[in-house]
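Anyone? Bumping this.
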Amino acid sequence: MAECPHCNEQISHAQMFLLNFKIKKKCSYCGCRLYETKKSRNRQFFMIYFPLSFFIGILTAFGIPFGFVMLSFVACLLLLLLILPKFQSYSTEEEPWF
Ligand SMILES: [Zn+2]
């Protein structure tokens, strides 16, 4: 579970899940803007999005029907949204992407 870098309150798993759907993420306790850390973004990319796209690529390479591939992709995305908060952390300032 992550904590707000401004007020140090613990952000619950459910609150972090909902934050994923917002463009401007704000702490529900103090209302301050939250920025995802570079480490958090990198962790998500290499542990979730990169393996997922690799998995989708393998499925299509073996001639599995496109409809089934897309259906499993959507199912994986929904599952990933549930575990995503475990890999996220926030900072007070926006960090560069690279
Ligand atoms: Zn806060």
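Late reply, but here is one note on the structure posted above: Residues 2 and 97 are 20 Å apart (CA to CA).
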